Amino acid sequence: MLAKPSEIQLKNFAVLQSHYKFTPLKKLHKNIYELIDGYQIDIDFAHQAKKKGEIQVFTKISVNNTEAPLPGYSLFIEGSGIFLINEVDRIERSVKDNLKYYSTVSIMIGYLRNSLSNMTASAPLGPYILPPIDLKDLFRKKNEQAKSFKK
Q1: Which of 33, 51, 60, 61 is the most exposed place for a label (fewest CB within 10 A)?
Q2: Of the CATH numbers 3.40.50.410, 3.30.479.20, 3.20.20.70, 3.10.420.10, which one belongs to the domain with range 8-150?
């Protein structure tokens, strides 16, 4: 079946910085996936309006990047994407807001997920694949953080 292009377009994507560190495992783990599932994942993002309806989105992802990381990978990646919403005047506000916020962050996480996988492709534990992220929860936490900054 033919796919209909979305009203949102990714005009540019760039990885701004990335860091990778491997901490050797002191003992062999029977299940590496259990170890990796224990990694803390921290994601942050910001939207900035640009010219003529363009939106720039900055996204940071830290994986097991704590003061006392678990063995294996400690990863950090930061990227920026520039998006354009086509026919912005014809789209309902709720649809436009969904595209502007949720879709842009989802797309950025997807591109950064791929970059993390590529960064660790030749690493000792094999490629790290960022698990699916609950965007609704991520946005709820972002809103709570914004409210606490206003106080």
Answers
A1: 51
A2: 3.10.420.10
